[in-house]
């Protein structure tokens, strides 16, 4: 797949938009750590907003100045993984092609962690949850982005 | 018929909303319900139409958005009904914790005003089981989150369906 200059700019723009959206999302998660009266006064609404994507169990969340973040450790890992990998692909400008087997492979640690925790093989560990979430978030992001890019640019090249 | 075309999104959005009311499932699946429903709606549409054509990005995002939209409508309806019956919800139960956190910031009157508003919402719900401000809050928050996650699910579903189609075509 050889991209024209315009397509290459388009690809970078798409990657940049994804990174920007994820940055906003991450800022929302760590907003309890940011000293801003507008953000802090809307804390209950932010909590409600993020409650749609996470159980927000304070015991399972990272804290900042003794205030739990708006999502649990696993979700923090997922979003951080997606954000960091989005920055990486933006900077490196590499061609993405992730096979479904890699998606499954990188999702397995998180699935195993969830199953073992549910069966009480060990106690909840924020770092393990965050790390397995990080792997999952990274691979899901690349998988989705590669699907979008392949569809947009392969189709164009085939015409 | 146009409506029939979007029936999978309605069915899957409703399914996600029903599952989101089950406490155990909601805690376990976190943000996977609506994206999962969007993926399922695309695969369902493919199965109904019995087509092996490539799904384009516009259709995938549109299906994801619609699934998220329908899920928002049903989730908000179920949430309001449950709140009306029980005269309580997670939001009310989390007010003391939110208050504790906000008091730590020591922002003065800004926090007081914000807490006053939230407490008035809680009072209304405890009294009548309904609050218009609460309805706006959950409708907007559900819409923002579900539409975004629905579109992500749509993109994921498109990727899965197209890869499956490609593999099937290669096998032939």
Question: Can you tell me about this structure?
Answer:
- The complex is a heterodimer of chains A (159) and B (172).
- Chain A has 6 helices and 2 strands.
- Chain A has 159 residues and is an all-alpha fold.
- The radius of gyration of chain A is 18 Å and the shape is flat.
- Chain A starts with a helix and ends with a helix.
- The mean pLDDT of chain A is 87.
- Chain B is mainly alpha-helical and 172 residues long.
- Chain B contains 9 helices and no strands.
- Chain B is elongated.
- The model of chain B has no long low-confidence stretch (mean pLDDT 85).
- Chain A binds chain B through residues 32, 35, 37, 40-45, 47-49, 51-55, 57-58, 65-67, 72, 74-75, 100, 114, 140, 143-144, 146-148, 151-152, 155, and chain B through 26-28, 30-31, 54, 56-57, 90-91, 94-95, 97-98, 101-102, 104-105, 107, 110-111, 113-114, 118, 137-138, 141-142, 144-146, 149, 152, 155-156, 158-160, 162-163.
Structural class of chain B comes to mainly alpha
Low-pLDDT windows of residues of chain B: none
Task: Tell me the number of structural domains of chain B.
Answer: 2
Calculate the mean pLDDT score of chain B and round it. Answer: 85
- General form of chain A: flat
Topology:
The complex is a heterodimer of chains A (159) and B (172).
Chain A: H1 5-29, H2 37-41, H3 43-50, E1 63-64, E2 67-68, H4 73-92, H5 100-118, H6 126-158
Chain B: H1 2-5, H2 7-20, H3 23-29, H4 33-49, H5 57-86, H6 90-93, H7 95-105, H8 109-128, H9 132-171
Helix pairs in contact in B: 2-4, 2-5, 4-5, 4-9, 5-9, 7-8
Q: Characteristics of this structure?
A:
heterodimer; A: 159 residues; mainly alpha; two-stranded antiparallel ribbon; 6 helices; B: 172 residues; 2 domains
């Amino acid at each position: 797949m050889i991209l024209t200059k315009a397509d290459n700019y388009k690809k970078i723009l798409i990657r940049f938009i994804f990174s920007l959206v994820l940055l906003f999302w991450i800022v929302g998660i760590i907003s309890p750590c940011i000293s801003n009266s507008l953000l802090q006064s809307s804390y209950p609404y932010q909590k409600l907003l993020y409650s749609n994507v996470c159980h927000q169990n304070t015991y399972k969340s990272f804290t900042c100045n003794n205030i739990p973040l708006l999502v649990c450790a696993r979700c923090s890992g997922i979003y951080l993984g997606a954000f960091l990998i989005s920055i990486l692909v933006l900077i490196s400008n590499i061609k993405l092609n992730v096979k479904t087997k890699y998606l499954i492979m990188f999702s397995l640690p998180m699935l195993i962690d969830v199953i073992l925790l549910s069966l009480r093989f060990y106690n909840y560990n924020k770092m393990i949850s965050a790390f397995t979430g990080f792997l999952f978030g990274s691979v899901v992001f690349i998988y989705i982005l590669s699907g979008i890019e392949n569809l947009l640019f392969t189709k164009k090249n085939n015409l | 018929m146009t409506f029939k075309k979007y029936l999978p999104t309605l069915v899957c959005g409703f399914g996600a909303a029903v599952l989101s009311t089950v406490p155990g499932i909601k805690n376990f699946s976190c943000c996977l319900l609506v994206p999962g429903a969007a993926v399922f709606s695309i695969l369902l549409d493919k199965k109904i139409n019995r087509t092996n054509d490539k799904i384009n990005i516009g259709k995938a995002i549109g299906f994801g958005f619609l699934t998220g939209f329908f899920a928002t409508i049903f989730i908000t309806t179920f949430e309001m009904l449950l709140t009306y019956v029980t005269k309580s919800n997670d939001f009310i139960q989390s007010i003391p914790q939110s208050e504790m956190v906000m008091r730590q910031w020591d922002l003065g009157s800004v926090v007081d005003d914000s807490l006053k508003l939230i407490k008035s919402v809680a009072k209304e719900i405890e009294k009548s089981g309904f609050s218009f401000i609460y309805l706006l809050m959950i409708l907007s928050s559900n819409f923002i989150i579900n539409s975004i996650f629905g579109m992500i699910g749509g993109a994921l579903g498109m990727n899965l369906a197209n890869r499956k189609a490609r593999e099937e075509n290669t096998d032939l």
